[in-house]
Fold this protein.
Amino acid sequence: MLTLTTFAYAQLIETTRAALDAHNTLLSDIEESRCNLTNLEKTLSDLSSRMLMGVATRDGKTSIQYSQAGGSVPKDRRSAAAGVANQPPSANVVPDKIVMTNGHAI
């Protein structure tokens, strides 16, 4: 229970001030860490792009090595290679029953 004295009041102010300082220090550390992580991600992205361009230069953008390195295969090659795999699932479905109407299968 808090006592109603100027000493208790001043002590609580100092405790609150110390907690606020600690909180602000943590926020500052988190912001510094966030900036560091953002810089590392940008550096990694730049290096990844440069490495991918190196593979593209050496093996070409339509090579298997390029796609294994994370490059995208051009759309015309992708659709030709996929062939039947791009058909909707209903194209490969076989009905369980054939319904006869007027002697004709539907």
